[in-house]
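Support request from a user on the community tier.

User writes: "When I paste my C-alpha cells into the form, the page sometimes reloads and wipes my input. The last time it worked, I copied everything first. Here is what I submitted, just in case something in the input itself triggers the reload:"
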C-alpha cells in the first residue's frame, strides 16, 4: 500500500504527532520543525517532493518542490499572510484553523471589555506610581456590562463565543454583522462553544448597516478577517458613529481599524476607549501614540496564547485528514474569491 506522506512543520509534541499518525495506517507522518534562528516562514528545505499533505503556517513559495501536494492545513485562522502567494493560484486545497481560537480569544475579548469598563489600565498606572488618587471613586467610576449592547462586526467563531459569554454570563444584548446572509457557522467548532446555529443575536445587520450597529453598541468587537474589502473598515466616519461612551475591541487584524483615526478618536474622546491585540505594524513601534493613551489597553497579539492551542489545532487537523481520506469536504476550506 502506497502511503500518503504528511509533513508537519510546527513544533508539536510527540504525543500530538502520534495522534495524527493514529488517524489511519495509510499515513506516513513526518515532523520537521524550524529551529533557533531559522526563518519560521522558510520551510522549503523540509521537502523531499513526495508530500501530499502539509501542516504549516507558511507554505513554500516554490511549489515545484512539492509536485504531489494536494492539501495544506494552516496553523492560522486567517490567510492575509498569503497575499500574493502562488499557492492561491494553484489547485491545492487550503484549510485554516478557524474555530480553535474561539475559547481563548473569546475569553480574552471579554477580559478586555471588563478591563476597559472598570478602568484597569488606569489602575495599573497608579500601581506603578505607588499611590492612589485622592478622588478615586470619581476617577474609577466604571460601567457594568449587564444590560449593555455588544455589537459584533464579523460573527465568526470568535465573535460567536464572545457573544455567548456576553449574553449568558452578563445578560448583554447582542448585535451581529455578517458579510453574507447565512446565520449558521459552517466551519469548525467545538461542542458547547459559540453559537453555531446563530440563535443568540437580538438583531442581525448587513455590511451596509455597519453604522447602525455601531451607533447602537456600547461595546464593539472586531472579529472579521482582513481582506481587501475589510481593510480600513473602521475609519473616522465609523468611529464618529459610535457613542462617546462606547468601547471598541479588536482581536482580529490591525489593518481593519484605521490606526491614525483610532488614535485621534481616543485623544479627542469620540469614544471611551479601545482594547487592541493587533496593530497595523507588529510589533507596535515604540513611538506610537497608542502606548501613552490611558484609554487604550494594548496586548502584543497574544489573545490565542494558551497551552491548549496546539491540542485544538491537532484535533482539527485530524478531523480534516479523516475527511480528506473519505473524499469529503474539508472544514474551513479557503474561498479564494472571498479571501478567507
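"...and here is what came back when it finally went through:"
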Amino acid at each position: 500500500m502506497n502511503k500518503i506522506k504528511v509533513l508537519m512543520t510546527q513544533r508539536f509534541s510527540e504525543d500530538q504527532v502520534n495522534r495524527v499518525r493514529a488517524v489511519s495506517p495509510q499515513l506516513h507522518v513526518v515532523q520537521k520543525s524550524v529551529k533557533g534562528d531559522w526563518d519560521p516562514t522558510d520551510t522549503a528545505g523540509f521537502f523531499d517532493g513526495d508530500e501530499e499533505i502539509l501542516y504549516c503556517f507558511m507554505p513554500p513559495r516554490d511549489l515545484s518542490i512539492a509536485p504531489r501536494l494536494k492539501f495544506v492545513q494552516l496553523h492560522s485562522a486567517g490567510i492575509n499572510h498569503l497575499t500574493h502567494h502562488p499557492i492561491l493560484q494553484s489547485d491545492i486545497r487550503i484549510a485554516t484553523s478557524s474555530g480553535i481560537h474561539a475559547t481563548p480569544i473569546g475569553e480574552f475579548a471579554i477580559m478586555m471589555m471588563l478591563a476597559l469598563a472598570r478602568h484597569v489600565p488606569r489602575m495599573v498606572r497608579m500601581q506603578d506610581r505607588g499611590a492612589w488618587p485622592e478622588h478615586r471613586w470619581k476617577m474609577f467610576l466604571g460601567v457594568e456590562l449587564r444590560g449593555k449592547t455588544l455589537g459584533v462586526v464579523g460573527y465568526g467563531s470568535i465573535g460567536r463565543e464572545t457573544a455567548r459569554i456576553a449574553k449568558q454570563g452578563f445578560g448583554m444584548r447582542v448585535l451581529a454583522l455578517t458579510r453574507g446572509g447565512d446565520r449558521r457557522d459552517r466551519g469548525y467548532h467545538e461542542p458547547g462553544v459559540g453559537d453555531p446555529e446563530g440563535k443568540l443575536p437580538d438583531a442581525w445587520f448587513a455590511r451596509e448597516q455597519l453604522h447602525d450597529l455601531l451607533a447602537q453598541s456600547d461595546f464593539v468587537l472586531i472579529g472579521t478577517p482582513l481582506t481587501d474589502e475589510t481593510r480600513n473598515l473602521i475609519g473616522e466616519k465609523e468611529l464618529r458613529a459610535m457613542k462617546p461612551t462606547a468601547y471598541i475591541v479588536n482581536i482580529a487584524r490591525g489593518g481593519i481599524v484605521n490606526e491614525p483615526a483610532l488614535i485621534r478618536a481616543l485623544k479627542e474622546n469620540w469614544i471611551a476607549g479601545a482594547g487592541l491585540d493587533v496593530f497595523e505594524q507588529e510589533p507596535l513601534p515604540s513611538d506610537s501614540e497608542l502606548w501613552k493613551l490611558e484609554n487604550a489597553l494594548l496586548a502584543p497579539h497574544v489573545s490565542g496564547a494558551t497551552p491548549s492551542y496546539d491540542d485544538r489545532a491537532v484535533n482539527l487537523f485530524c478531523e480534516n485528514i479523516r475527511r480528506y481520506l473519505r473524499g469529503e469536504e474539508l472544514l474551513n476550506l479557503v474561498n479564494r474569491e472571498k479571501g478567507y
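Agent notes: The reload is a front-end session timeout and is unrelated to the input. The radius of gyration is 22 Å. Residues 4-100+306-326 form a domain with the Rossmann fold fold (CATH 3.40.50.720). Escalated to web team.
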